[in-house]
Write a structure and sequence with these properties.
Strand order of the largest sheet of chain B: 5-4-6-7-1-8-14-13-9-10
CATH class of the largest domain in chain B: Alpha Beta
CATH superfamily of the largest domain in chain B: Thiolase/Chalcone synthase
Shape of chain A: globular
Oligomer: heterodimer
CATH superfamily of chain A: ACP-like
Distance between the termini of chain B: 15 Å
CATH architecture of the largest domain in chain B: 3-Layer(aba) Sandwich
CATH class of chain A: Mainly Alpha
CATH topology of chain A: Non-ribosomal Peptide Synthetase Peptidyl Carrier Protein, Chain A
Structural class of chain B: alpha/beta
Number of strands of chain B: 14
Number of domains of chain A: 1
Order of helices and strands of chain A: HHH
Number of domains of chain B: 2
CATH architecture of chain A: Orthogonal Bundle
Structural class of chain A: mainly alpha
Strand content of chain B: 15-25%
Largest sheet of chain B: 10 strands, mixed
Order of helices and strands of chain B: EHEEHHHEHHHEHEHHEHEHEHEHHEEEE
Radius of gyration of chain B: 20 Å
Radius of gyration of chain A: 11 Å
Largest sheet of chain A: none
Shape of chain B: globular
Largest interface: A-B, 11 and 14 residues
CATH topology of the largest domain in chain B: Peroxisomal Thiolase, Chain A, domain 1
Strand content of chain A: under 5%
Distance between the termini of chain A: 8 Å
Chain lengths: 79, 412
């Protein structure tokens, strides 16, 4: 799967499942500041990623993820 | 009577009758029922298929999906009712209310739907797939916390879970906070959205619910000989309570006084009222004493009146025992006949009814009261509202667990 395909899937999850405004979801968007995903929301996001892509994500892997782009890259590397 | 007399300056409500105070009041006076067949879920195989549901409310539309999906429905309703009440009180909902404002909310079963959803996912998909928001949605204090966050309420907060007395106790404890000088204003109310297939089944197991599935709007018939149980309902009602001085200093309109509060416990049985309504009677006495008025001053009682055989009989006995001959002069009504039983939201809704009765000199009826019961022989304002100028009104609320909360309201 190409990076842009992963991004589109991630965007779909954010918009459809979490109710985030589509125009806000860009590769540069910060999860917390721009998308208002708090610490509880991150757990939801991870669960959604795991279900969508059939993978498991450890908490340590998330420590460097603060933007949509970083999340997309992490997912791309695991698929 | 306290030196710091407490008044109500704002009301907000969303309930089976309407999503505004004015609509709800009009329907109450016209004897309209808000009870109907259940729409929110499939009722197949359930022994009861009707309830009082909130209508025409879309939380996603009201607060946006990203915000709405983090909250249980009981919290959606709480925030909606609180915003209305604050605006009605002339307060700015965009500015944090701060540390001189407290919040006391009542609920019977909190986010029970979130609990059920989490258990279903746990059983079907395992512990790692449970909604990470489950705890924050299911905890009974969720609405209290969410309302406080939304409107920046930084004073003391309490969540009261005395079942069907919860928001009567909330209004009473709010009165205490204000009278005792802890804060000058309290957002007090109740919320409930606990009608689920499981709760219907569980209440049915103890024969608490009306089973008149073919005639939902006629099912809740308090004090009628053919009454057969209560009707579950959902909603939230909020009162803005403050000192009279605070209200006057900011030029707020005043609905009425919260003059008396009495709370007791039956300590008798987990669901059945004490014989003769003894605990209820003591709560009514305490509320009168707190208000500092003679019992004959009470002209209207908004009864607990659930439509269960036991409640209505014992509440009647308690009223007769306390008021003696004056019991027959009282105007009494159960507005649950129209709303259904709002459970933890009932006391706040019925407080609102008392305040509106005092302000408008009108008393809403008990509908579906057609067949007299010799054990319920008082004037329950059957079927038609009554125009009457009253000075003091009482609201009774009694909960499973044996909790009794009684409030006395005075005309401003």
């Amino acid at each position: 799967m190409e990076t842009n395909e992963v991004f589109e899937k991630v965007k779909g999850l954010f918009v459809e499942d979490l109710g985030i405004d589509e125009s806000k979801v860009t590769m540069d968007a910060k999860l917390e500041e721009d998308l208002e995903i708090d610490s509880l929301g991150i757990v939801e996001v991870v669960m959604a990623f795991e279900d969508e892509f059939g993978i498991e994500i450890d908490d340590e892997e998330l420590s460097d993820v603060s933007t949509v782009g970083q999340a997309v890259n992490l997912l791309h590397s695991k698929i | 009577m306290s030196m710091r007399r407490v008044v109500v300056t704002g009301l907000g409500t969303i309930n089976p009758l309407g999503n505004k105070v004015s609509d709800s009041w009009e329907k109450l006076l016209n004897g309209v029922s808000g009870i109907d067949h259940i729409n929110l879920f499939d009722t197949e195989n359930l022994p009861v298929t009707f309830a009082g549901e909130v209508k025409n409310f879309d939380a996603n539309e009201y607060m946006g999906k990203q915000y709405a999906r983090k909250l249980d429905r009981s919290a959606h309703l709480s925030i909606f009712a609180t915003e209305q009440a604050l605006k009605d009180a002339g307060l700015d909902t965009e500015t944090r209310l701060g540390s001189n404002v407290g919040i006391v909310f009542g609920t019977g079963i909190g986010g029970i739907a979130a609990t059920e959803d989490a258990v279903r996912v746990f059983d079907s998909r395992g512990p790692s797939r449970i909604n990470p928001l489950a705890i924050t949605q299911l905890m009974p204090n969720s609405s209290t916390g969410q309302v406080a966050i939304k409107f920046g309420i930084e004073g003391p907060s309490l969540t009261i879970t005395t079942a069907c007395a919860a928001s009567a106790n909330a209004v009473g404890e709010a009165k205490n906070l204000i009278e005792n000088g802890i804060v000058d204003m309290v957002v007090a109310g109740g919320t409930e959205s606990g009608t689920t297939p499981m709760t219907i089944a569980a209440f049915s197991q103890i024969r608490a619910l009306s089973t008149k599935n073919d005639t939902p709007s006629e099912a809740c018939s308090p004090f009628d000989k053919n009454r057969d149980g209560f009707v579950m309902a959902e909603g939230s009602t909020v009162l803005i309570m403050e000192t009279e001085e605070s209200a006057n200093s900011r030029g707020a309109k005043i609905y009425g006084y919260v003059d008396g509060y009495g709370a007791t416990t039956d300590a008798h049985h987990i669901t059945a009222p004490a014989e003769g309504g003894a605990g209820a009677l003591r709560a009514m006495e305490l509320a009168l004493k707190d208000a500092g008025i003679e019992k004959n001053k009470i002209e209207y009682i908004n009864a607990h009146g659930t439509s269960t055989p036991a409640n209505d009989k014992n509440e009647t006995l308690a009223i007769k025992e306390l008021f003696v001959e004056h019991a027959y002069d009282l105007q009494i009504s159960s507005t649950k006949s129209m709303t259904g039983h709002l459970l933890g939201g009932a006391g706040a809704f019925e407080s609102m009814v008392c305040l509106l009765s005092l302000k408008n000199n009108k008393i809403p009826p008990t509908i579906n009261l057609n067949t007299p019961d010799e054990e319920c022989d008082l004037n329950y304002t059957p079927n038609i509202s009554v125009d009457k100028e009253i000075s003091f009104a009482m609201s009774n609320s009694f909960g499973f667990g044996g909790h009794n909360g009684v409030l006395v309201f005075g005309k401003y």
